[in-house]
Structure formats: structure tokens, C-alpha cells
Design a protein that fits this description.
heterodimer, A: 235 residues, alpha+beta, Ribosomal Protein S5, domain 2, six-stranded mixed beta sheet, 10 strands, B: 274 residues, OB fold (Dihydrolipoamide Acetyltransferase, E2P), Ribosomal Protein S8, Chain: A, domain 1, 3 domains, four-stranded mixed beta sheet, nucleus (chain A), PNPase/RNase_PH_dom_sf (chain A), exosome (chain A)
Chain lengths: 235, 274
């Protein structure tokens, strides 16, 4: 018997310049989140964005090897496993980005000389993978009861050759885009925690993407809130 | 740029700190700030911090509020660090009471004074290393048993189950536990006997079962005669007359987390008949 809880919400965001096959008024894909679905890890979550799905498990605060322990805070480790094949350099770099985001938010000083491990498994990749991984990691950390000073979410923007902005792009849109930007934003003041970009874009376009991502993150945080309220309303 | 600033201002407005009293028993998320009752005067309907002038400036009483699990002090406010329901308990004597967040967790973090069930993993010199489910094993001195002296050592082997309480448990030091209370008596603590079954549940279920108004234990007691030990680290040890009864009891207790009261009564009545 598992205390699995499914929450599906269709989220729409108004963006200043948006176009794409999704139609007017809708920029983010369908979200779904399930928590506490794995029995072994201390916290687990599965996050679905359109067709992209990532499963996350969190272990911690647990024992740490003496070589890796830090005397005044928790050692945070992120492991990202791709859907097929062995993990390579791209996974290593994504792990580092996710780890830096989590370290900014998790209160590691409350658990010195322990380790908090986040394991992410890509179930299906249809665009905006890093943002989906960030969302799944956040939900799993909340499920495990790791103390955090804020929640965080990931939002991906793509700029195509005409300069139009697309939020939460699919794999095809990402391949055809001139630039793909991923931002991690925190829930308290929508501040930027992490950004990674690929491609060619101007300074004004960067600000535009950031503003659009901040608006979109509002909807992601509202979805988190509804999802967690539903989970606690069952008990 | 103008839209970005406008949007940011709107975000600030929606994230203003709320009064703790207003969100009692509601789900709170990490990152929220809560105002204590004495600070609400400043954030009145004027919004700009208008406060009525007081003739005696020293009359504002400062109450001492205890910040429980899931909350941290952040300046004058409380910062929520875990997701869960906000609870408050009124104080017996003076003071502002205790605020805490009721969250669902599986991993245990040692807290001073908690009674836990541990498994002895090693014996090194004068201390035992006991696994309590936290980030490091706790240490238990061989003299911390009732009637133990240097000549009269307790009979504890590796693999035994121990029921004890923490005397030292903070984030900077290795946790230490003992099997005697402050008067030197065992008071139920010590090595747990032979047979029986140890299993793990979530911390929230243990707190629910140990609450004073919980009927689950009484119903289970009417079903079969049993011995049961609850550890605050999520471990329960149960022993009944036969192995089958023990397994049935273990399954019922694990399932209690997800069942409503009606479903539970149905299962108990079915078992009582058979």
C-alpha cells in the first residue's frame, strides 16, 4: 500500500511574446506530480511536463564517508542517470548545475557531517529536461523533509530565429531554436538561483526571457502549493 | 524592463509575511515567513506601519514563543523550513506557547530526550555502538544500565535490540544514549527480549499512535494479548503468542497510516470473528 498521490493540473501562462503550436494563452505544458512513490528512499517524487518525465529520490541526512564530510554543513550529492547508456559529460554538467541550485536553498548547516543524496532518473525526454529535473528534485527534497529556506523551480525558454520566445519548448523546438536558456528561480522573491544558456541572444532578449520565466514560475509554485495541500489534506 | 519591475512588485505583494495565527492548521511551505501575534499591530490596515501612540511606552509585553520542529527564527519572524501543517499549543504558565510544523517524514534525526529502539552494531572497549536510524551510530556506555557496575557487566551482544533515551543529541556531537533515567532506574528501558518482530514505519505514524487520545492501541490490545515497544525513530517491536498473530499485528500497524477509522474497525471486527 503506498501513500502515492497524483495531482494533475493544466497550467496556462500569459507571456508577452509567445507563439507556437500550443495556441494562444497557453505557454507551459501539462504538469503532473506524484510524491512518496518509492519505498526505499526517504523522499521521492515524479514530475511530468508534457512528455518529459523525471523520477527523483532523496536520501538524507545520512552517513557520509570521512573523505567527503564537511565539518560545518551537509554534503549534497546529485546523481543523474540518463534513460539509456552510461552517464557522460553532459550528465555531469547537469548534476553540477542541480547541485549548486540545491545547495543555495537547502539549510545544510543544520546537519553537519551528513550527506544528502539526490538521485534523478530520466524516464522520458521530450524537451526542457533540466527544468523538469529541477522541479522533481525540489518536490523530492520537500517529501524527504530536508530543511530548506525556500522552494525552487526550473523554467526553460527558447528563442527561435525570428526572435519569438517559447516557454517550456519541446525537443523539436529546442533543436530548431537559435538559443535555449534554462533558469532556476526561488519561491520567496523569484530571484535567480541558476542560469544556463546555449546559443546566440542579445542582452535585451535575456532580460525578456528572464521576465517571462519569472511569470511562468508563479504558476509552477502555485501548482506545488496545490499539490502539497492535496497531499496533506488526505491525512 | 518596466514590465519586469512591475511584475516583481506584484510578487513582493503576494509574498508578504502572514500572521501565524491566521495559518494555524493549514499547510505551510518552506520559505514562508510568519508574524507572531505581538507583531501584527505594526502591519495593520494602514499597511504603512501606523500604530496608535501609547502613553506608557513600556507596556508592550514581550512573550517568549518556542520555535518547534520545522520553524527557524529569522529576525523577529518565523521562517518555515519544512512543508506541513502549522500547529500551536497554548502554554500552561506564562509565555507565548509553542509553534511547530507537523510534517510527514521517514528519516529520523536524534533529539535529546527521545526514547528510541536501537540495534547494537559493535562493541568497542567500554561502549556499544547502536544504530538508531540517524546519520551516525549512537554510543551507549556499558555502565548506563540498571544495576551495572564495572564487575557486573550487562549481557548485551551484537545484534540485540535496545530501548533507551538520548542524553546528548545535537548536530555537532555524536549522539549518546542511556538505558536508565535520571534516578538510576531502568523504567522499561534496556535490552528488548527474545523473539518478536521489529519493523519500520514513518515518524508521523509513531506520533499518531503515541498520542493520548489514540484508540488504535486499545483496539489492538483487545484483539490479542501482546507486548509492544514504540521507538520515536520510526521502529516498532511487537510480540504476540504465535508468529501468525505477530505478523497480523505488524501488518495492521503498518496499514494504519493509510486507513480511515471505518476501514480499521471493519478489519478489526473481521479479525475478531476469525
Amino acid at each position: 500500500m503506498e501513500a502515492a498521490m497524483q495531482n494533475e493540473a493544466k497550467i496556462c501562462a500569459e507571456s508577452k511574446t509567445e507563439s507556437g503550436p500550443r495556441g494562444p494563452g497557453c505557454s507551459l505544458r501539462h504538469f503532473a506530480c506524484e510524491q512518496n512513490l518509492l519505498s526505499r528512499p526517504d523522499g521521492s517524487a515524479s514530475f511530468l511536463q508534457g512528455d518529459t518525465s523525471v523520477l527523483a529520490g532523496v536520501y538524507g541526512p545520512a552517513e557520509v564517508k570521512v573523505s567527503k564530510e564537511i565539518f560545518n554543513k551537509a554534503t549534497l550529492e546529485v546523481i543523474l542517470r540518463p534513460k539509456t547508456g552510461l552517464p557522460g559529460v553532459a550528465e555531469k554538467s547537469r548534476e553540477r548545475l542541480i547541485r549548486n541550485t540545491c545547495e543555495a536553498v537547502v539549510l545544510g548547516a543544520l546537519h553537519p557531517r551528513t550527506s544528502i543524496t539526490v538521485v534523478l532518473q530520466v524516464v522520458s525526454d521530450a524537451g526542457s529536461l533540466l527544468a523538469c529535473c529541477l522541479n522533481a528534485a525540489c518536490m523530492a527534497l520537500v517529501d524527504a523533509g530536508v530543511p530548506m529556506r525556500a522552494l525552487f523551480c526550473g523554467v526553460t525558454c527558447a528563442l527561435d530565429s525570428g526572435g519569438t520566445l517559447m516557454l517550456d519548448p519541446t525537443a523539436k523546438q529546442e533543436k530548431e531554436a537559435r538559443a535555449v536558456l534554462t533558469f532556476a528561480l526561488d519561491s520567496v522573491e523569484r530571484k535567480l538561483l541558476m542560469s544556463t544558456t546555449k546559443g546566440l541572444y542579445s542582452d535585451a532578449e535575456l532580460q525578456q526571457c528572464l521576465a517571462a520565466a519569472q511569470t511562468a514560475s508563479q504558476h509552477v509554485f502555485r501548482f506545488y502549493r496545490e499539490s502539497l495541500q492535496r497531499r496533506y489534506s488526505k491525512s | 524592463m518596466a514590465e519586469a519591475a512591475g511584475v516583481a512588485a506584484e510578487f513582493f505583494a503576494s509574498n508578504r509575511a502572514r500572521a501565524a495565527r491566521a495559518v494555524l492548521d493549514q499547510v505551510v511551505l518552506p520559505g514562508e515567513e510568519l508574524l507572531l501575534p505581538e507583531q501584527e499591530d505594526g502591519e495593520g490596515p494602514g499597511g504603512a506601519g501606523e500604530r496608535p501612540l501609547r502613553l506608557n511606552a513600556g507596556a508592550r509585553s514581550r512573550v517568549r514563543v518556542v520555535c518547534g520542529p520545522g520553524l527557524r527564527r529569522c529576525g523577529d519572524r518565523l521562517l518555515v523550513t519544512k512543508c506541513g501543517r502549522l500547529r500551536h499549543r497554548e502554554p500552561g504558565g506564562g509565555g507565548g506557547g509553542v509553534y511547530w510544523v507537523d510534517s510527514q517524514q521517514k528519516r529520523y534525526v536524534p533529539v535529546k530526550g527521545d526514547h528510541v529502539i536501537g540495534i547494537v552494531t559493535a562493541k568497542s572497549g567500554d561502549i556499544f555502538k547502536v544504530d538508531v536510524g540517524g546519520s551516525e551510530p549512537a554510543s551507549l556506555s556499558y555502565l548506563a544500565f540498571e544495576g551495572a557496575t564495572k564487575r557486573n557487566r550487562p549481557n548485551v551482544q551484537v545484534g540485540d535490540l535496545i530501548y533507551g533515551q538520548f542524553v546528548v543529541a545535537n548536530k555537532d556531537m555524536e549522539p549518546e544514549m542511556v538505558c536508565i533515567d535520571s534516578c538510576g532506574r531502568a523504567n522499561g528501558m534496556g535490552v528488548i527480549g527474545q523473539d518478536g518482530l521489529l519493523f519500520k514505519v514513518t515518524l508521523g505514524l509513531i506520533r499518531k499512535l503515541l498520542a493520548p487520545d489514540c484508540e488504535i492501541l486499545q483496539e489492538v490490545g483487545k484483539l490479542y494479548p501482546l507486548e509492544i515497544v514504540f521507538g520515536m525513530n520510526g521502529r516498532i517491536w511487537v510480540k504476540a503468542k504465535t508468529i501468525q498473530q505477530t505478523l497480523i499485528l505488524a501488518n495492521i500497524l503498518e496499514a494504519c497510516e493509510h486507513m480511515t477509522a471505518d476501514q480499521r474497525k471493519q478489519i478489526f471486527s473481521r479479525l475478531a470473528e476469525s
